[in-house]
Amino acid sequence: MLFNSLNFALFLPVVFILYWFVTNKNLKAQNLLLLVASYFFYACWDWRFLFLLIFSTLLDYFTGLKMAQTENQNTKKTWFWISILVNLGFLGLFKYYNFFAESFATAIAGFGFEVHPWTLNVILPVGISFYTFHGLSYVIDIYKGRIKAEENFIDYSVFVSFFPLLVAGPIERATHLLPQIKRRRVFNSDQAIEGIYQIIWGLFKKMVIADSCAQYANEIFSNYESMNSISLLLGAFYFSFQIYGDFSGYSDIALGTAKLFGIDLLRNFNFPYFSRDIAEFWRRWHISLSSWFRDYLYIPLGGSQGGKWTKIRNTFVIFIVSGFWHGANWTFIVWGALNAFYFLPLLLTNANRNNMEIVAKGRLFPSLRELMAMISTFFLVLISWIFFRADSISLAFKYLVNLFQCNFKNGLQYLSIERYSAELLLLIMFFLCFEWISREKEHPFFGKWTYVRLGVILFSIITLGVYSDITDFIYFQF
């Protein structure tokens, strides 16, 4: 069930009405309704994988109770590792088994041996990376003594499977979401209106920006060998805005939907393309995943403490694992390693925390230095997205070689989708201006001229939105 589908447009009002007008006086009934709605939402993708979600939920719920009930550290550690290994085992089986089997066969073939590995012919359960990380953070936090085990199974299940965040995040923490689930919620019209605004903004990002850019990016990446340097640069540029509009659009819809039910989710994006260095970019892009790896992997490894080689090791571990989290392909690993190379000079010179505030805070225009820093950072990110988008490493390098051949013949090329690039570039410039004037807020509908802004965005969705080919959100595959 896609957020930008008619099915969801019917599903959401029904759940909203039942939640506030039927179960509003009973917190247990509200949470049970959210759980049933979430399981129905997930079953609409593939009902068979609903059992995997329930199993994962039961595993971590009972693991938490068992760790809380014992004072024996060895027993506690045993339960902890059972949960960790089973969770990662299922994630590895469904997401990475074929990758490792095929990579092993390829490596062996390099020594002259032919191997035909047994592979799994199954689809990847949607959202498995996200709900697995929900459970892992919960179990780790109990083991470390940061939180107490949740005794109410319904409440814990809602934490894991709350439908707005179930299939593509943000990756929530029990310390943030569980208290909201256990607390009685009263309808707040201001919060609900803000949620509607954020849903509309997310739909604009997805249907107008991301899906429009996808048409151009797909055309150029599919025909990169016949494209000149300008077109190849634009192809990477379009994909940069496709993935940003797609994923941040999903996050906005998720946050806005949660607000309709009186729940605040973690912010996942904070205008990342206005970053002045790569460290700032990663503080503003997919914030819930970046902070998850920071807290549960980077800091336990020693973080930025210790010697130079320890810092280098930890930096590459965090970025490569983050890349591998995105998918079972060497392109994601190279993408992660490339971002580690970008980040390393900032870390080694202690400049990784130079830009903590939003750019040009309190000013309409950035300085020339800020502008150049944003452009250079965006260009680095754009190059890395080529590896993220390409089907293989060899194709990514071929794309880059063609890009830097400086072939400017024919200028803006006419594409087989019967379009030039000019109109889309104007649309992206409009989008960037809209974001720029709103960069100190969560979304553009705060402040003056709210209804004018709302009218412009709604008109854009109606007239410019892509309806003919409704596509999945990119991060559903992760």
Please provide a brief summary of the model:
This protein has helices at 6-21, 27-46, 50-69, 73-109, 128-143, 153-161, 174-182, 189-222, 229-260, 278-284, 287-298, 308-326, 330-348, 368-389, 393-403, 422-436, 450-464. The protein has 17 helices and no strands.
Descriptive keywords:
mainly alpha, 478 residues
Protein architecture, described:
This protein has 478 residues and is mainly α. It has two domains: 182 residues, no CATH class; 209 residues, no CATH class. It is 65% helix and 0% strand. Helix 11 packs across helix 12. The mean pLDDT is 88.
Q: The biggest beta sheet, please? A: none
State the total count of DSSP E strands.
0
**Count of individual helical segments:** 17
Strand content: under 5%
Specify the overall morphology: globular
Structural class: mainly alpha
Question: What fraction, in percent, of the residue positions are helical?
Answer: 55-70%
Residue runs with pLDDT of under 50 for 5 or more positions = none
Order of helices and strands: HHHHHHHHHHHHHHHHH
Q: Structurally, how many domains make up the residues?
A: 2
End-to-end Cα distance: 16 Å
Computed over alpha carbons, the radius of gyration is 23 Å
Q: What's the average pLDDT? A: 88
